[in-house]
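Retro notes - structure team

What went well: the batch runner handled both jobs without manual restarts.
What didn't: labels got mixed up in the shared folder, which is why I'm recording both outputs here explicitly, each with its sequence directly above its tokens.

Job 1
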Amino acid sequence: MLITMRQLLDHAAENGYGVPAFNINNMEQGVAIMQAAAKTRSPVIIQASRGARTYAGDKILQALISGLVQNWPEIPVCMHQDHGNSEATCMTAIQHGFTSVMMDGSLEADGKTPASYDYNAAITRRVAEMAHHGGVSVEGELGVLGSLETGMGDKEDGHGAEGKLSEDQLLTDPAQAVEFVAETKVDALAIAMGTSHGAYKFTRQPDGEILAMNVIEEIHRRLPNTHLVMHGSSSVPQELQDIFNEFGGEMPQTWGVPLAEIERGIKHGVRKVNIDTDNRLAMAGAIRKIARTQPSEFDLRKFMKPAAEAMQQVCEDRFERFGCGGQAETIKPLSLAEMAQRYRSGALDPVLG
């Protein structure tokens, strides 16, 4: 069953868990996510970037996710646009069945130039007004994703800040977060605190100097009823790095976001946790293993089935670690029309303080 992000995150907040948001590009990834969700009885956010929409095509993605929802009708699924860069990107996502969109106004429409606060607030507010009329949820972002070690932005699927960033840009200001949520009326707020896209997040085990979990805690203190989002939150497990490298990969030693830190975030208002690299790495390692150990194999299915199984294991682990397990059957879905009525009544306006 398709539901909105707002309904899912409200339920997560009421029951003290976090929801992994897994990126999707093809059928095997979708099946892996849903099999993991069914096994653990978990609700899920399936999200597609602009890059994924270009790669697979909007109509194919829409049909794929519709098929997944029909095949597993007992699982609540939010279909989310990841890192929308404009009103048009968000609107076309809604037109193709997305029940939630992210308007990432932290960067300008080119997807690489850090934007001003005024630009970000104005465009995010316009998208929220537009989407809420149809009952669709909206995620905004304040602060720019990037490394506190290097001061550089990150780039994934053609999206990410370029060049050196100041600490003010790399860390979301808690006081400004209160202003932003009040002004835009977003349903969830992605914050910057040292995480980044891709596998190469940290050159060492992250500590408070390069992963500022205290920012999450302070924003949650000021906005206890706002759903927070951690982007770039793959953990890049050592065992997945080792498999990838054992069978011909060349990944230098790297560190991701420790699961213990994500669990810490969930205790302080993080309700949506974006994960993509871990799944890519699990699939790539499995494919490399088949290619290396069975060099005569050319049946694509013999590569993709183990790859999907490896990804499913990652998804199952995250569902359980974040507290999603067993929550699927406790959610009673609301239609977009019902959600739109709640927005119109003011029942879903942000609760500040």
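Job 2
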Amino acid sequence: MAESSVFGDNFDDFMKEECVYEEARELAEKKMIAFQLEQEMKAQRLTKTAIAKKMNTSRMTVDNILDPSYNSSVETLSRFAKALGKRLTISLSQ
């Protein structure tokens, strides 16, 4: 049990100690947004090409939006949601 104090009380503490917590959390959030967009595309049986056409953009832009390593703007995410007939909502939490 003494070994756990070397790594903190939990994984979050360990990641904070290693200075990677915020980066990992941000990537997880981006992955969740991309997952939700892809799930809605599947539910509506829409291809990336169809979404690109609805957004009046290229398929490459749609690929970028769905790539968690790419920094999409809120405006772009909102346009994607609108193309799906949805509304993007953002909230603050602890």
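One thing worth noting from job 2: The chain has a mean pLDDT of 87.
We'll revisit the folder naming next retro.
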